[in-house]
From TrEMBL:
Belongs to the cysteine synthase/cystathionine beta-synthase family. The gene is cysM. The lineage of its organism: Bacteria, Pseudomonadati, Bacteroidota, Flavobacteriia, Flavobacteriales. Transmembrane segments: none annotated. This is Cysteine synthase. SUPFAM superfamilies: Tryptophan synthase beta subunit-like PLP-dependent enzymes.
Length: 294
């Protein structure tokens, strides 16, 4: 059977954790989003944002796309823009791992690096300035309804199907919040009893892919009513769990996934039984030049 590469986005494996959880009455499933062709959960949103904009006529082949990204969305957008023959400039902080920058460029994107001390907020400001002054078009993952709708139509239904409707808790790191918003919307429509748990970093922690946004940068797609509980994790906890996942479960992923699983284990200590699903949002190979696995 042959597929177009875009047909391989989604339907990622759901695997049962066997080592890191010791309560026999709680099942922890990990959804391996690194199995998407671009290597992360962001393939889903990137494809839906570009495909929907083309279908509506919002953009055409002459569009100059620009997007601020911390990494995974940029890689996904670079891959999909290349497939559709679109030009795209991706803006990210200069302290992003070189694997991310090289991967985006391999897919054909222009990459602009902004000062590290201004973070992703600085990258967003740069992109918005180019939109205002130079005629660029920004898909704007932070405010684009097609971001969360990708998860409403794919991620949520897959989890409901693959747990045979038995899921009790869904755990996701929160960055743009597209994954948790879309998945929450679908799962709550199936059963209001499913609990949605968001993951944020503690105040002093820096965990790529998980953010506690200043109010003025809070993603417009975020609706706090769709999250039942927020669990905070520290940088140290996320790092340690990421290493444990590789060594004990054979799951090689990034730190935001370690954060999500840390939160899932904290959650498991507060319930007697249940079926928890946590998102493993990418692969670990794009962090090898960082200090994560040292």
């Amino acid at each position: 059977m042959s597929h177009h590469i875009l047909e391989l986005i989604g339907n990622t494996p759901l695997v049962k954790a066997t080592s890191i959880i010791d309560n026999p009455d709680i099942t922890l499933f990990l959804k391996l989003e690194g199995n998407n062709p671009g290597g992360s959960v962001k393939d889903r949103a990137a494809y839906n944002m570009i495909r929907s904009a083309l279908d509506r006529g919002t953009i055409d082949q002459d569009a100059k796309l620009i997007e601020a990204t911390s990494g995974n969305t940029g890689i996904a957008l670079a891959m999909i823009a290349g497939i559709f023959g679109l030009s795209i400039e991706l803006v990210m902080p200069e302290n992003s791992t070189k694997e991310r920058v090289q991967t985006m460029r391999a897919y054909g994107a222009k990459v602009t690096l902004t000062p590290a001390d201004s973070g992703i907020e600085g990258a967003r400001d740069y992109a918005e300035k180019k939109v205002a002054e130079e005629g660029f078009f920004m898909l704007n993952q932070f405010a684009n309804e097609d971001n969360w709708k990708a998860h409403y139509t794919t991620t949520g239904p897959e989890i409901w199907r693959d747990t045979e409707k038995s899921i009790t808790h869904f755990v996701s790191s929160m960055g743009t919040t597209g994954t948790i918003m879309g998945t929450s919307t679908f799962l709550k429509e199936q059963s209001s009893e499913v609990q949605i748990v968001g993951v944020q970093p503690t105040d002093e922690s820096r965990i790529p892919g998980i953010r506690k946004w200043p109010k003025e940068y809070l993603p417009k797609i975020f609706n706090p009513d769709k999250v039942d509980q927020v669990i905070e994790v520290s940088q140290e906890e996320a790092t340690n769990m990421t290493k444990r996942l590789a060594k004990e479960e054979g799951i090689f992923c990034g730190m935001s996934s370690g954060g999500a699983v840390t939160a899932a284990l904290k959650l498991s200590k507060t319930i007697k039984k249940g079926v928890i699903v946590a998102i493993i949002c990418d692969r670990g190979d794009r962090y090898l030049s960082s200090e994560l696995f040292e």
